[in-house]
Amino acid sequence: MKVLGLAVAAAVALSGAARAEDIVIGAVYPLTGNAAPVGLDAKAAYEVAAEIINGTHAAIPMLMGKGGGLDRLGGAKIKLVFADSQNDPQKARAETERLITQEHAVAIVGSYTSATAATISQVTERYELPYISADNSSPSLNQRGLKWFFRTSPHDEMFSAAMFQFFHDMGEKTGHKVGSVALFYEDSIFGADSSTVQRKLAGEAKIPVVADIKYRANSPSLSAEAQRLKAANADVLMPSSYTSDSILILRAMNELGYKPKAILAQAAGFQESAFITGAGTLAEGAMSRSSFALDAAKSRPAIPEVNALYKSRNNKDLNDNTSRDVTALVVLADAINRAGSAKPEDIRVALTKTDIPGNQTIMPWAGVKFDATGQNVNGTPVIQQLVGGAYRTIWPFDVAVAEPIWNVGH
Fold first, then answer.
1. Which of 230, 248, 289, 342 is the most exposed place for a label (fewest CB within 10 A)?
2. How far apart are CA 380 and CA 132, in angstroms?
3. Which domains does the chain have, with CATH numbers?
4. So what's the pLDDT on residue 150?
5. How far, in Å, CA of 317 to CA of 63, rounded?
6. pTM of the predicted model as reported, rounded to 2 decimal places
């Protein structure tokens, strides 16, 4: 019986080792429908991150950059399984459950829109495994008392605070004081949360909000909204919009012969390559907050190599969203490796102990360290401006590579 017991124990150990060879991570993104370009870009970014973690290559100067898999799990590989949310919160809920129950994912990453993140994180909380919010920015997501929610990037309160600090610093440095703003936001958790914090910060800064416009996402026309923005003629238009709506509002304003003095966007659609291509010259001079600075290679030496890998796969440069996707998977893989385990509870505990210096990432952040709500408190945003079809970092001034240009086209 003792021999049989040893044999059974050995079989169980071997079975566990075999399972460890594939650490299944589920990724929920819109792969079809109107947001498919964003989801497919995200898919490419995760695949690049997995290639860096799993592959055999020269060391890249970043966390998990040596390759070869997870050394504390015997070289186990990250296996990505993608699910299509179709940008529908209920579809995202069902697909997350499928990834957990049928694909046996030990953690979920996602998901572009905050509305889908809200339902995904409910499922992962119920099944008790980590959800890594890679690119969801609604501040309310980490304020729901969830135990299994972790967000690597800043949220919109942090982003908006940076935007208003930029206004202040611009006034101090250049004399371009912002006298009024117009808020323009879609009718979603993203738009509502973004506008709420921007309204509050504008009040604190004593900057009048001369237009406060909520619109229906994916509207066929934004002409009426464009007329209201033109009439308000704010010093700065502050849109919180995804890609198709971002293009549509610029076209609608152009048809009216209206060019805002300045645009400072809550990223989202304004940071997508599809927006830059679709809006063309109409987007020239637009500013956006960002998690990422492609031009920060001097302080983040891994950027050129990671960007080259992404570009070879997807024929695009990394942007605000795709850089966050790469970072999310790397941070998750590091936690799994430190845990030395693929058990969700062990991964969760390791995530709570994460403390990664910014120079070990491709992001211009102070680092990655989660508070009790699962929010990274060391994500430090930048402001960028679109000039000649490419974003350049213009703030904070000590890391800027270009001066801000005000009143573009006036």
1. 230
2. 18
3. 2-154+297-379 (3.40.50.2300), 157-290+383-395 (3.40.50.2300)
4. 98
5. 20
6. 0.82
